[in-house]
Amino acid sequence: MPPSGPAALLARDRDRARPLLTFYDDASGERTELSATTLANWVAKTANLLQDEFDVGPGSVVAVVLPPHWQTAAVLLGVWSCGAAVLDTAAEHDGELAAADVVLSTQDRLPELAEVDLPDDVLGLSLHPLGLGMPGYTGPARDFALEVRTHGDVFVPLVPPDPAAPGLLLGELTLSLAGLVESAEQLAGLLGIAPGDRIMVDEETAAEAGPVTWLLAPLAAGASIVLCRRPEGGALVRRAETERVTATLGLRIDGVRQLGRPA
Q1: Per-residue pLDDT reduced to its tens digit, 144-172
Q2: Is 220 helix (H, G, I), strand (E, B) or coil?
Q3: What is the C-alpha to C-alpha distance for residues 110 and 75, in angstroms, rounded to an integer?
Q4: Is residue 123 over pLDDT 90?
Q5: What's the distance, Cα to Cα, between the start and end of the chain in Å?
Q6: What is the predicted pLDDT for the residue at 4?
Q7: DSSP 101
Q8: In which domain, by residue range, is 175 found?
């Protein structure tokens, strides 16, 4: 069964071997590059983990307490592959995480979240540069990195996703699975994202803009993403050249087109 909803954006016409999502973390020295094929494998593994171990499917709500990251991209698309809704992580401040069926959080946030009313099913992510598990963790959360690797590279939902079902919960606003795709396509047009664009965005801008902007809109347009976490000094200027960046989101770099701004 072909993917549907936001995950179907991965299957759109593109060179599946070329870089689709390149992630930098200047604090750790990480550079991780995923092609469309590699990201799709991570998405399938994540969806299988959520469906098989946590019964995630249409009607489920999954809270994603993660920063913009390549693993976050796999988690979001994995949740949507199951036909479930992502609870916007800003809701954690309103005590609404208890409304989720499953919570995925970074390891460093788990002690803090232990003080909040959470569901029984919690997955922790170390966000280690090599995708390793949570070092030194002894709490009740299950380790995403250790568990996801045992699941298959092909995902078949037990219940086909309903395009009209909730896909993203943003306070009082709800976007359906189909609405996420439509919003991504519209936003790509408004921002002027072109097929083949290589878009650089930093973590802060991505977090403020949300996943429809930093992840889904580029995928909808047939563009690729260079996501930079904790950038240092002039690294972004040099990176724009080495990564052949054609446009930026929320960043101003001389000689590079800034999305959403007049040429």
Answers
A1: 999 999 999 999 999 999 999 999 998 88
A2: helix
A3: 17
A4: yes
A5: 42
A6: 67
A7: S
A8: 5-258
20 falls within a domain: yes
Is 204 inside a domain boundary?
yes
Do residues 34 and 20 make contact, with C-beta atoms less than 8 angstroms apart?
yes
Residue matched to tokens 């989101």: 249
State the CATH number of the domain containing residue 169. 3.40.50.12780
* Cα–Cα distance for residue pair 119/215, rounded to 1 Å: 27
Task: Say how far apart CA 195 and CA 192 lie, in whole Å.
Answer: 10
Angle at 111 between CA 108 and CA 112, to 5 degrees: 90
Q: With a threshold of 0.90, does the pTM exceed it? A: yes
Locate 31 and state its tokens.
Answer: 């550079």
Q: Which residue type is seen at 258?
A: Q
Q: Considering the domain boundaries, does residue 214 fall inside one? A: yes
Q: How many domains does the structure of the chain reveal?
A: 1
Q: pLDDT, tens digit, for every residue of 2-59?
A: 566 899 998 876 777 899 999 999 988 999 999 999 999 999 999 999 999 999 999 9
CB 237 within 8 A of CB 253: yes
Region 209-222: mean pLDDT is 96
Kindly state whether residue 222 falls inside one of the protein's structural domains: yes
Give percent of the chain with pLDDT exceeding 70: 95
| Contacting residues for 71 by C-beta, under 8 A, at least 6 apart | 42, 125, 127, 131, 144
Interhelix angle 36-54/70-81, rounded to 10 degrees, is 60
Burial class for 56, CB neighbours closer than 10 Å (0-12, 13-18, 19+): buried
Closest to 36 (Cα-Cα) out of 80, 70, 1, 63: 70
Kindly list the distances between the CA atom of residue 190 and the CA atoms of 78, 185, 262, in Å, as whole numbers in the listed order: 27, 9, 11
